[in-house]
User: Fold these one by one.
Assistant:
Number 1:
Amino acid sequence: MKAANVAWVPVIPSGIPQRLRSVGGNAPYQPYLDGLADDVYLKAHEHKSDVYFTGQQMEDNTVFVDWTHKNSNKFWNTQLGYLHAAVPFSGVWLDLNEPSSVCTGVCYWDQKAQHPVQQKLTYIPSGRNLEEGTISLDVIDSKGNLQLDTHNLYGVQQAAVTDQFFRSTLRQRPFIMSRSSFAGLGKFAGRTLGNNYSKPSYMSYSVTGVMMQNIVGIPMAGADICGYEGDTSADLCARWYTVGAFYPFSRNHNSKAAVAQEPYADMFNALYGKTAFTYKQIISNSMHNKMSLVRYYYTEINMVQKTGGTFFKPLFFDYPNDAGAYNHQVRNVMLGESIKLGILADHGVVSQSNKIYFPKGTWCPIFIIGAVRCKTYTVGTEEAVSTDPWTFQLHLKAGRIVPF
């Protein structure tokens, strides 16, 4: 793959299967046995501290690495090393690392605590079962900490150990994406926003979702372009590619049960409306736009890493005294300090005007055919734009020079 200039980023779920049935049938999975030898798995609860907690993910019964254990770094480093030796990878996508489990708490009643800690809580945030879709809150780590107190840290702990593998073992800059996050994740990894739906409303939500990750210190973030759950359409997917091209992290991700949404799928050969453009051409154009901005993205995100701040941010972050900058947040985005994006990310969600906003000042269009026509606004102004799926407005702030 490297010879073909193809980067491979494997999906690695948080659970270690006890048996990998798709490969070895009922034979024990070797990484699982290696972890047993190192005693690196989370335990059921304080009264069963000699029993490894068993959850369930895609390969049925799984155990979960205890990142506080003294042997966990060595175990994880060794397993990633085995994988890299077999198929050299360029990065890692850490998935289901909340950690997720299809059971509600325990999968086997003999691992259930006699007096579950959740039943002792005087207040339960959200009012729902806190073990829904995840492992038991009574699970303990090697330090005696309950999952109740450490649950949110799991993804960050895994990302930190994975980051160490890239830096210390491979001696290369890490590329790590994580589904789970907590304070500090941005030091080690980027963030995928998790499974979404193939609906216009979720395309709209994605913009503020990426903004939020940037606000909390995770600049490398993105949503599943075209949607994950449910069937997308050629029109929605093409529009989402236009929006998603400006995410710091752009990825098309789909569920097995949904219609194919790769850009080469047959439905994208159709023409858009009465134009001569196919949806595939619209998608391809979006990809080229993203690639042409890579130098700028690298530069700005590097500055964020060194000096702090945000990259993909609401317009009002840079124009807090402009009342108009607070309207239509999903349509008006600042990309770093120099470029403003105007895009109808909420198309199909609301029946309102097709306008984007320009704060007071001079703005020069990027990606325009012909002579560059800068425009000066003496006051904040809304401008109407086309509703075609390829439409976006990218403008350079006056007085700025950017790599392109």
Note: The domain at 309-397 is CATH 2.60.40.1180 (Immunoglobulin-like).
Number 2:
Amino acid sequence: MKTRTRIGGAGSPLPAARPRKDGGVPQCGKVTRPTQTPEIRSTLWRLHSFVLAALIALTGCRTPIGADLASPRQAYLNLHRNALNSSDCSGDAQVVLHRYNLETPFEKNPDATLKQLQAIACADDRRDVLYALSELNYLNAEGRRRNGGQ
């Protein structure tokens, strides 16, 4: 048979409950939060500020750009890619297409895009536009030759 002992009673390892100042009996289960003094509040404010500053600083240290290891041959081929040695245009031609917002139209309708680019080349004195026009014309002709002249 089990015997029950009161908390804080005779023979209990726990101390007896202290009476409250207002004369009432302490209630079990209620947790009262201690009041914070101004010193504690300022210390907590400084701690939160420090943690926030540290998180901001740490996220700023992470680089958003990554690099993949490539062999020298692969790096050379990527740098010198053009319509003559691959089935895609060079980076210079892509820059021109991007400058005039012609990337998507070139994929959908290359003939109309090349006409637009020729009109731009006649009005613009930059050499990269002429280079892109010639390379994209070659790429378009090669694509038609591969598809049987369509």
Note: The first helix runs from residue 38 to 60.
Number 3:
Amino acid sequence: MYHTCLGVNGRLTVRLDASFLSIQIVNDCFVSGLHSSNDAFRLRLCYLLYRFLKECRTDIPPDMCATIANSFRDLLLIVPKLPDPEEVETDMLTDAVKDATFDSQLYLYETIGILCSIMFKSPQEESELLMSFVQPLMDDLSSSLTAYSQNSQDALHVVKTRHIIMALGNVAKGFPDYPQPPVPEGYILPPVNVFGEIGQAILVCLQAMNVYRVVRDAVSTLRDIAHSNHILTFRRLALLLHESWPQLARLSLISSPHSCLICLSTLILQS
């Protein structure tokens, strides 16, 4: 049934009418399955819900977005796990980040970004919904950093930090590309203030943990997002961080948003 919704080769074969979509249909087709006790089925549904909403995002009524997002809020809790020391194949951290459950959660985080971006005509509501999802992540990021500072030998804190950075990056990835110049008249920016807070929280943690490859790789994920021209926010973020990163402030005045984020990640990785 779920594959039928997506059509052949994962593509929608018929453009959906907005009247076709309803909370009940999304719940029956996807959300109930996301809460299945069958692990393989549940993890697959994370991807299918993401693909379904991504393909028909222009047909989704904005007033449905918060309800859909809240219907799987309980599935977004990040619970990192460490492998049994006797079963480690490469090293503890590298093996720990190979987590199928978390990889599936990343689709849900990107779906949150998609749903929030659909509400762009109501910036206040968009910002509030987005903040309701990213604030718990930033709180966890702060707690993880505090725990790490008290016990830097516990790999679990490093893995959780890496996971949270990845999750925040995927939320940003759910927003549409910033339009190429000339920018259309009346273009509404994404919630810059929220992404500014996200960037600052990530910077603090990266400065403390950039000796770990898994954390640096998470920054590389942000770099990949930037190469797709996602989110003007990071140019604005450069100005917010000019005291700590004056190179970014200068770059933001002369370069593109994605170049600014690349510079940000490069400075962190090299520091």
Note: The first helix runs from residue 2 to 6.
